[in-house]
Amino acid sequence: MNKDIIRTSSRKGLLFGIVLIFLVLINFHIMASTMISKLLGTNVLRGAFPEVRFMIIFLVIYGLWAGWSAVSRENKTTTKLLEGLISGITTGIVIVLFGLILFFLLETQTDVRRYLTALSFVSINIFLLGLRGAGVPVLFGLFTLTGLLGGALAIGLRSKTVSNFKHSIKAFVSNVRQSITSALPEFVTKYGKYMIYLVLLALLLLLPSRWGSYNNFVFGMVGLYVILGIGLNIMLGLSGQFMIGIAALFAMGAYSVALLNSPFPHGLMWGFWPSLVVGVVMAVIGGLLLGLPIMRLRGDYLGIVTLGFGEIIRILLNSDLLTDLTGGPRGIQNIQQPTFLGRPFNDVSYAYLIIVAMAVSIFLYYRLEKSRTGRAWLSIKEDTLVARATGVDVQKYKLLALCIGAAFAGLAGGIFAARNQFTGPNDHTLMVSINVLSVVIVGGLNSIPGIILGSFALRGLPELLRELETYRLLVFGALLVFMMLVRPDGLWPSSRPNLEEKGSSDLKEDIDPDLEGRGND
Amino acid sequence: MLKVTDLNVYYGAIHALKGISFDLQEGEIVTLIGANGAGKSTLLNTVSGILHAKEGTVEYLGENISNEAPQVIVQKGIVQVPEGRKIFAKMTVMENLEMGAYTVTDRQQIQDKREAMFDRFPVLRTRSKQLGGTLSGGEQQMLAMARALMANPKLLLLDEPSMGLAPVLVEQIFDIIQDINQQGTSVLLVEQNAHMALSIADRAYVLETGHIVLEGDASVVMNDPMVISAYLGG
Ligand SMILES: Nc1ncnc2c1ncn2[C@@H]1O[C@H](COP(=O)(O)OP(=O)(O)O)[C@@H](O)[C@H]1O
Ligand SMILES: [Mg+2]
Hints:
The structure holds 2 protein chains of 2 kinds.
Chain A: H1 2-25, H2 28-39, H3 52-70, H4 77-107, H5 121-127, H6 135-157, H7 160-183, H8 186-206, H9 213-238, H10 246-259, H11 272-294, H12 299-318, H13 323-326, E1 339-340, E2 343-344, H14 347-370, H15 372-382, H16 384-389, H17 394-420, H18 430-443, H19 448-464, H20 472-486, H21 499-502, H22 516-519
Antiparallel strand pairs in A: 1-2
Chain B: E1 2-11, E2 14-24, E3 29-33, H1 40-48, E4 55-60, E5 63-64, H2 70-76, E6 78-81, H3 93-100, H4 107-120, H5 122-126, H6 137-149, E7 155-159, H7 167-182, E8 186-191, H8 194-200, E9 203-208, E10 211-217, H9 218-222, H10 225-230
Parallel strand pairs in B: 3-8, 3-9, 6-7, 7-8
Antiparallel strand pairs in B: 1-2, 1-4, 4-5, 9-10
Helix pairs in contact in B: 3-6
The structure holds adenosine-5'-diphosphate and magnesium ion.
Residues 11, 14, 16, 34, 36-42 of chain B line the site of adenosine-5'-diphosphate.
């Protein structure tokens, strides 16, 4: 029993530690500190680094979170505290190791920015709280303490008040929705859906040629994220694999189209269409190569490994070593443009191309979901062991999901590169993976309308509201918290779970009362 | 029909099955009884191909299937009903049944089979469009069994079908098991509820911490003093 507690909470702490390392590697700690300082009303000069005290606020929140999330639902108060503490200590240990490495880099003045662009000395210094070597034990103490506090916080806040609050928000939303639907005339509620589809279709056909190239650019971005989202959803939503390094597969498509279709570095001019096909195939191969060794990993670990894979690809692309092969840090310019019936592509043609690609992706997605393969994925996601017992070749179908999802990512990447007439390492950062993940989660797992809405909300809107760019992450954060409270299944959740409401509610009436607890496990 | 010889199964360093041998003849109900943690589920999972033995063999109809993948074993006719009423909670009853016939590709055969299941378990017909997770405990166990039968098993492996069910339902489930057996399916039944299991089985094995400590006709095992004191509450 006690061993279990130690194992699960230290695992949580380990995860938090590793994620924090990733965050530092992408410079998220600087961004977060800047946002906190803005939030608190302090003026930060453009391009200047935030003060250490904001970094401390960020780390304290992070540590509290690590402690909080390690707390399980049913344990006693002391156990909860223990869980928080263990999680905090584990995070602390991971960070000590990482901090020592950073300190070593700082002491020896080793510049690793060529491989890890974000890891500048200033960034390291802020992470070590400006204390250099002494920062390492301080960080350890900070995480131990905040882990414990996070545990305590969870005891206090995860009580009735919070769940009551959640319920009242939910009730409010459903009330509003009901009063809206009841206020509309009957034919609108009945045929409204189809009318909306018709209007959307007409807009899709008319708008690209009318609303100008900037809007086409934004629209194309949204469309490409829809395709990426569908790809990720096949891995994450349909087959339940926490694969998130989709930027790497996106890069496969983009680089194939770029390398096979530009004057430098290879001087190949295969044309857009053949190289797009190659891009899709390359992405599938990438999915396969990534999938084979990691098939046995589960959940959190799979996520971390695939994220790492994405970063490795980017670092390789960014290194000078491969300049002759992949164009190096400066990327690939002058990608040859496709032609259609003899006419070269412009922004309008790209918009239509993306509409077609999106339509094909959506169609394929629905076909897949309803197919035998889709059923097999659902069974694996629900219960891998039972899926095996009913004769589903789990390995094969998991790999298949990775490969098919990768194909979508490759398609999006190929179009992306050609449309920009350029691609380089910076088009394929961790941020791409994280953005696609947010699109799918925010929109609603396994829901195409959700993914479309998510892409628009997260990729389209910020682009249209450029002014607010710096607040974007902050808005995301607020939005995510709001969503988790009100719409845990996303903006537009998949309709499957609603079936449940039609079922009987006499769920466990015939379970032996003595064994009730056991039956639920 | 099934012959297991000197089976040794490990979870990492944990030695879960320590040289298990037993057999099952065509048409029999054989039960394996044992307390929590004795290794019953491990044994069934090894026969199903979900786990693989480090030493020892599983022979089925004279063929060594020790290293086969689970889907191959299902195709050969050995199907397991896993412990704890494991149905697919987010699939409808209908879809659950179709999952059971996953290794069958003939649409007509699947349809016929499904009708047969609805006849055998009428309550499933009335709930066919409902999600599995909304069924009651007893209904879920029936669905799990129906799903396994969809694959046309020659040998059905049942892992603690009585777990967590009220006594009335347990009796109903065991009647169904007997019925299935009489229609020609051999059954390997794993149970903690020794009383019920021994009352319908032909032969029995008693499993303790990875060893078989007793075997024989069910009626003999039922009267063994050790079994009476340890498993029958006597
Ligand atoms: N996945 C696993 N990892 C490690 N040990 C396991 C695992 N599953 C079962 N065990 C161990 O193997 C032994 C047998 O377990 P099991 O076959 O589930 O017993 P039973 O089904 O009879 O209750 C137990 O000691 C259990 O702790
Ligand atoms: Mg068991």
